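Dear support,

We are seeing what looks like truncated structure output for some complexes. This example has four components. We would appreciate it if you could run it in full and send us the complete token output so we can diff it against ours.
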Amino acid sequence: MTPDIVRAAFAELIVTDLDRSRWFWIDVLGFVLTATEPDALYLRGYDELSHHCLILREGRQPACARLAFRVREAGDLGAAETFYQQRNLRTTRIPAGMTPGVGDAVRVEDPLGFTIEFFHEMAHADRLQQRYDLRRGAEVARIDHFNIVVPDVRSAYRYYTDLGFGLSETIEDDATLYAAWMYRKQTVHDVAFTGGDGPRLHHLGFFAHEEHQVMRTCDILGSLRTENLIERGPGRHGVSNAMYVYLRDPDGHRLEIYTSDYYTGDPDHPTLRWSVHDPRRRDFWGNAVIPSWYREATQVLDLDGVPRPLIKDTQTAESSVGADGFTR
Amino acid sequence: MTPDIVRAAFAELIVTDLDRSRWFWIDVLGFVLTATEPDALYLRGYDELSHHCLILREGRQPACARLAFRVREAGDLGAAETFYQQRNLRTTRIPAGMTPGVGDAVRVEDPLGFTIEFFHEMAHADRLQQRYDLRRGAEVARIDHFNIVVPDVRSAYRYYTDLGFGLSETIEDDATLYAAWMYRKQTVHDVAFTGGDGPRLHHLGFFAHEEHQVMRTCDILGSLRTENLIERGPGRHGVSNAMYVYLRDPDGHRLEIYTSDYYTGDPDHPTLRWSVHDPRRRDFWGNAVIPSWYREATQVLDLDGVPRPLIKDTQTAESSVGADGFTR
Amino acid sequence: MTPDIVRAAFAELIVTDLDRSRWFWIDVLGFVLTATEPDALYLRGYDELSHHCLILREGRQPACARLAFRVREAGDLGAAETFYQQRNLRTTRIPAGMTPGVGDAVRVEDPLGFTIEFFHEMAHADRLQQRYDLRRGAEVARIDHFNIVVPDVRSAYRYYTDLGFGLSETIEDDATLYAAWMYRKQTVHDVAFTGGDGPRLHHLGFFAHEEHQVMRTCDILGSLRTENLIERGPGRHGVSNAMYVYLRDPDGHRLEIYTSDYYTGDPDHPTLRWSVHDPRRRDFWGNAVIPSWYREATQVLDLDGVPRPLIKDTQTAESSVGADGFTR
Amino acid sequence: MTPDIVRAAFAELIVTDLDRSRWFWIDVLGFVLTATEPDALYLRGYDELSHHCLILREGRQPACARLAFRVREAGDLGAAETFYQQRNLRTTRIPAGMTPGVGDAVRVEDPLGFTIEFFHEMAHADRLQQRYDLRRGAEVARIDHFNIVVPDVRSAYRYYTDLGFGLSETIEDDATLYAAWMYRKQTVHDVAFTGGDGPRLHHLGFFAHEEHQVMRTCDILGSLRTENLIERGPGRHGVSNAMYVYLRDPDGHRLEIYTSDYYTGDPDHPTLRWSVHDPRRRDFWGNAVIPSWYREATQVLDLDGVPRPLIKDTQTAESSVGADGFTR
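Here is the complete output from our reference environment:
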């Protein structure tokens, strides 16, 4: 019994000052506000026809409360429950409406330590794709993926393979799988793994249509004298071919504005394997990765809202491998 | 028994001068040449990892010899055979290798009069997406869709619904379905219907990543004093939100360079219905459609390679409906 | 005595409903408001460091009240006065401050029937080029040129040659000069002439930095269901190489969003002469010119604010010449 | 007597392997080849209507042999001669044709230690701006500026002020002028000064029309596995507002692909003064400057072709000033 997952659908981030988050995500980045609660904002991109792709909830410590996948049919909720219960993992049913716009859901603690939610139904939202008069900021079209930090990338790869994900790209050498990109929808990924102490959320990836929108995002942050919120890039990823920029929100949560990856829907889609020694894998233009990008990430909460203890990285850190082939 | 169709995969066009076609499709538009035969060229876009998305075969009269869909599993070939035989339509098995790079296939005459091929296996091609040094012309990434002319759009819609296609957008009024866009892969369409005398191929749609690539295509054609090959556009479609340009190849076959549509993979993806009286449906900027675009199209061949007789349009022509609501 | 003209600097348009004009020029197109008067708005582009490039003044009939050139030195005002007085044309001195932000000026009725103003000093405006957070609409950088309708293009060419303008491009045949582009600043033009009944203002040209900004302008107008304000384009001009779109403001005044022309500052800059029979001259992609674009234009006012009578076109109309070389 | 300088016109670089340079400048970057000599290549950009903007000459050591300014009239050559002779600096007359395509010239050793050439006449080259079919690589339109390393920026500023250059932007604090941008043509600069041991050539700046061309240049270098030739960027400069990338040619000569600066032709154009403590001055997105960018530069040759001895930097190095206001 495996749930038929459609795609990475939404995330819930705990932020410490909702007004400040509203400024960053809505005023600066231009996310669309679908709904508000006293302690939460429900946001979406301009192409999205469903209620939200991001929940910002005020709390005392920055954290990631859940990552949600949409499933194809109502019956997939039961399949998800079974999948995790068979692995002796905690699951819980969430009735429709507990999260605004979301139908019945199953929430679980997954083998990697993340709180994952599965749902089938979501309320529709107004179609704004062609409201060019409203476009602002990064002009985010839709959520694209979750990138998570795990102490053992190969284990994460096996678990998501069990969940029916395809493998689009990897970073590896003979001994180690340093990173992997896996998909359900027909893009490069819905989830990717970065090696490190985990479980932590590395970043949320949001798709924009054109590369100039990535540049514009940076220009706006410079205009506001908040260029410090640009952590890495813009650049072109070797992996995925995407033009990217990584930002940090006011709580340090990392997000990526991401564009120009490729179609992966064919049944025999071949995996692209990058050598960890190819300096182009992380930046096709050879620019060095900022150290914080490898080191820092968002802590995740368990089903009770308690921060998950970190498990130490059990593999060679990618950041310690030089282009010359030696590990430092 | 319905075959599980993955996507619009390739088309075969009959051209009357292969050298001239090579000039247009390869030298000017920049398509990648995978293989040649004395009378045929096998082409693909820069993102494509499979053998070809277009076959150009020399013959005496311009025509469309077949449109091919890829299916998810080998067993879907039998399902396709059954689907058409149950409808008393001709089918034939094509052994692997008859078409270079293509495995076992089933070829049929469909209810609309088109020769359709189903195949599961295709040879892989070199990954060129990141060979920016080789990019030329329109920088086509991949085939996107087939647009066909049919005398009765509603019948075509019903048939493709039976084949498992979703409906992303329509042009309609109370009485008539003028056009419809239907998908298997997670984009706006794999196939679309234009009302008119049919069966004819209206155009092949090819995806490019960025809007400036659409403009560049036109600039190149102007540079070569072949601007007459630009039939319509560039413009923004209301339907699909795509930036487009329509070209005519040296034999008059129409193609579209197409970018910036949207994700349709959610299970309850809502249909967008455009009024035939909204002048923005065909061009979001209100530019008039060139008359030849409604009138001219490519004849199609049956399983024996004989041109299909045309069936007269049985519905009101969209081109005769004015924005003021009156039919002319 | 010839005034040393720096560039086309600003225009004054009479509009019939200032609120509606404010909506179009500021809310939709994103022009920056420098100053207001009860009956007038003073606007500029994001790169402009001087007070305004456009005055919109409310009046009873749409018209162009003046076109203003900036001169290099204060003494050039006297030179301008002499230049026109020697040609027995009316001139008048305008004291500093009569137009907000503008120093002493000389206003004249020129040989073509236009009211032209020369000024040297203009108040500075805030530097907004790097306020990407404020950018909206067409993201106009600065005014670029005036395009005027004159009954005899060759006469207009001679007069502006006397004023020290260089000739960058023409449309011509053996017998007729159909159009000409002339410059003072180091771009393709500050002024251009279109043959027709004159004097009339054909359009004001505004420079944007990138081609996607031209497309975005159209997208916004489509979003607002005001796509009828897009008169022609977008397209690439053969002449000037500029990507363009022509809009009509709510009073019918025509403006162009214009980008990617070229440097003309070298002392021996060669003129590019287009044959009137080259279909690429007006649109490099071969798209036909909309008839209204040749026919309609804005009436101009004399020094007393009275509409100028029109002088009938004395030359073959460019719009009547076919690509096949015959005049129709 | 001051020569009336039109613009930065061309540079001569000594390269050690002409075939390798041909690969980089022509095959990769797409410069247009106007003429060849056994030991030299004459290159230009796609918009340039004059013979060359860059000479690559084979020699034993990488160096900059000369920087050339075009002057407005033939008589300006004498003015240039006088200007330098009055300052007791070496000058020499170069007859027309000694440099292919270049008329009579005056070559001097300037007060900063650079070999500067003044010329008035240059042969025209074919107009290729609208040959989009030929465009490749960085699609460079034209040379834009020379950036030079000098030990005393304030002295360089005074000397170029004497030569009639305007000052568009600076980096400074109360005590020190760290860098300055000065212009003759109507752009941000024809020459800029970077503080450091000099005289050395910091880089040659080449203008491209659109920002995506800067990205494409990097993508091509990544494709060729020569991403190490990308030294810094892409990014947005605070100074000049230009999108930039800095490359190093196979001999280590630095060049910049540069776009989207602004018009400076108004008589009272105001100087923009950046604090050395504003982290956005060198990169508007806050990305750190690569150390080699401050340290490394090309040696220059005197009138006899002998390398100029370096004079030690006499001022605080900009690279040693932190954003926190302290000098390190």
